[in-house]
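Entry 12.
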Amino acid sequence: MNRSVATRTGPPAARQATLREHNLALVARAVFEASVPCSRADIAAASGLTRATVSTLVDRLVAARIVAELPPATPQRAGRPAVPLAPAARTIVGLGLEVNVDYLGGRVLDLSGAVVAEHVDPDDLHDSDPGEVLARLGRIARDLVERVRADGMTVAGARLALPGLVDSRAGRLEVAPNLGWSRLDPAPLLGLDPELPVEIGNEAKLAALAQSSRGVVPDGAGHGEEDGSPQPVPSTYLYVSGDVGIGSAIVVDRRLFHGRHGWAGEIGHVVVDPRGPRCRCGATGCLEQYAGKDALLRGAGLDVGADTAELVALLDAGAPAARESVARAGTALGSALADYVNLVDIDTVLLGGIYPALLPHLRAPVEAELQTRVLAAPSVDLHVAAAPVGDHAALTGGAREVLRGVVENPSAWVEGD
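Predicted 3D structure (tokens):
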């Protein structure tokens, strides 16, 4: 008899706990995905949960400092005014970290999406020592953590962005050619508190996720109404980040497409011309050697240490070498993008890194190649636009990925779960 009772009561208890966690996450996502602050009644109507259940779950999220109650809205009819709900500000925060070829730094975001602290140091990190650079980044990270903790915030974790092949499941960098790094477990070299979870990711992929969180393409060029008004970023797009290296990521329904090992998106090493110049990766004729920052600057007659603004100034002045360099880059980039579009059937390309500043001059050769090489071009409307988040976007994407984990698993932060 006792065995019979134990058999019947064990599994339902487990299912009940799982259902409670599911519903808590459902309510949290409803608050965070709402375009305007929603109420308990709004969530109940959209989710199918009872108002009493939603109210209880919201109370727990408020107590956990994940959700905040705003001042009551003016009632439209008789009765108690609805209390709008929004992501909590300056409570739980995520830390984005990055090492790139010409800078390293960190950025802290709260659940509302606001930057609450950041520190970025420009530097030349070609062929740098990983132990030295990561220890330096660790000092920046510790300072940021101490600052936000002193203001009463809780750091949920950190995400480190690196410009290379990253096995995020193993927490390992396989190779970052432009840094000169390979076969590296970077997280321990930061020297952070072991209690602070640190994961690593590819720079372009984290930057790609930052675009989806912003929600609009600001320039309207090629991706807006005729009046140039901002249009929503679609849920599926290709993001390409141009710097010394060129990275990319495919976002499908606001989720990254990782590929078998998490290495999808190395567009910088797509072959443009097998007989072309040798790349730092060891191959020849890679896109990076035609449309990377160093290639663009050299082609324009500038030093590779020059700022992109100097290249833009030459272009605006009509300098022939600069125009020829950018036209060559645009043709190579358009050819590589056309391969992507033909292979994965995607119709929106967001350009980040140095490309938005160059887009007025890049657009024509890029779009000419797309129209020539994309088989479906006569049937679909292909959009090329500047990425809406451009200022060290991988730092934003990394911090947001940490916070996404909080929203998708809020039970870990709710007392009693």
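Annotation: Residues 64 and 415 are 7 Å apart (CA to CA). Residues 2-33 form the longest helix (32 residues).
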